[in-house]
Design brief:
heterodimer, A: mainly beta, six-stranded mixed beta sheet, four-stranded antiparallel beta sheet, 12 strands, globular, B: mainly beta, seven-stranded mixed beta sheet, 11 strands
Chain lengths: 115, 112
């Protein structure tokens, strides 16, 4: 079965420290990979995507993600965390071989940046 | 500005009542989606539509119904058959397979 895993329900990091939010996936074929952020009582906002090409993808608000095909991972990173980065983060995948527009989401990771 | 509009922001349902959540997009996207979000469970797909007048069940379609009569609109009806409707409902759209989804700001549904 195709799936996305975010192994950590919550990640705590001190302001100014680097942060990593983990995502691994299991899909057939080459994946299209996405990260989204959600603030309280709001919809999801797109951060970045990997389609093909360079394994390091840069996105909005200083976030980046590294695609690792051998480890089937797409971890979200930021060199220096801000308190305002505190939110819920979702990883999503769309199999490129799929004939549908269906996306598969992870269960989300709550990021808390401590001042 | 292009985007997705969900209304109402808050909705209350009485026992035995059907309620309809609105979702409108002006992004000219082909595909539209409805998700249910419960605490600690991430997003679960209810229904999706890839084209006008066609839609498919997602993972938790029981107790819900949709229509797609226009490209811009994808309303969701929560029927009385849905015994636990209290949740945050998100509508999304997407243009093509390798593009991200755009999300509305959600409707929070509660039981009276």
């Amino acid at each position: 079965a195709q799936s996305v895993a975010q192994p950590e329900d919550q990640v705590n990091v001190a302001e100014g420290n680097p942060l990593t939010v983990k995502c691994t996936y299991s899909v057939s074929g080459n994946p299209y990979l996405f990260w989204y952020v959600q603030y309280p009582n709001r919809g999801l906002q797109f951060l970045l995507k990997y389609i093909t090409g360079d394994n390091l993808v840069k996105g909005s608000y200083g976030f980046e993600a590294e695609f690792n095909k051998s480890q089937t991972s797409f971890h979200l990173k930021k060199p220096s965390a801000l308190v305002s980065d505190s939110a819920l983060y979702f990883c999503a995948v769309r199999p490129s071989t799929s004939g549908t527009y269906k996306y598969i989401f992870g269960t989300g990771t709550r990021l808390k940046v401590l001042a | 500005d292009g985007g997705i509009t969900q209304s109402p922001k808050y909705l209350f349902r009485k026992e035995g009542q059907n309620v309809t959540l609105s979702c409108e997009q002006n992004l000219n996207h082909d595909a539209m989606y409805w998700y249910r979000q419960d605490p600690g469970q991430g997003l679960r797909l209810i229904y999706y539509s890839q084209i006008v007048n066609d839609f498919q069940k997602g993972d938790i379609a029981e107790g819900y119904s949709v229509s797609r009569e226009k490209k811009e609109s994808f309303p969701l009806t929560v029927t009385s058959a849905q015994k636990n409707p209290t949740a945050f409902y998100l509508c999304a759209s997407s243009p093509w397979m390798n593009q991200p989804q755009h999300f509305g700001d959600g409707t929070r549904l509660s039981i009276l």
